[in-house]
Amino acid sequence: MRIGKIVVAVATFVFGASVASAADEHVVDYRKDNMKIIGGHMGSIAAIVKGEVDQKDQLAIHAKGMAEMAALVKPAFEANVMTGKSSSKPEIWSDWNKFAAAADEFQNASKQLAEAATSGNQRDIRSAMAKVGKSCKSCHDSFKTKN
Predict the structure, then answer these.
(1) Of all residues in the chain, what percent carry a pLDDT higher than 70?
(2) pTM of this prediction?
């Protein structure tokens, strides 16, 4: 009877750990997918602004999409979850206030870019793009491992 209880306890622990591990992987995958979407929008915006593609009519759509995704960055990292797939640094959670401020800065810069893209003013668009790029780099330098 005692061996049966031990087997059940070990099985419960192992099953619980594998469920937690799978859940952690989903959290990390979700974050990575969101960042890929943001990167996709930024890449499209840059290609349009540089004149590499002729979809000027889509600039505001990409800028708005990026601004909407920027609002999801901070909530996506609230859970202190890392796996082998993650390129997040633990400093995200040990210095949450700095990370949250960087996420807020990115969100504000993205909103400004969306507004500039809607206006069509090229100088404002380029200025707003520079702010977005600076906010991305600042956060990545502090909170993302180099893979």
Answers:
(1) 86
(2) 0.82
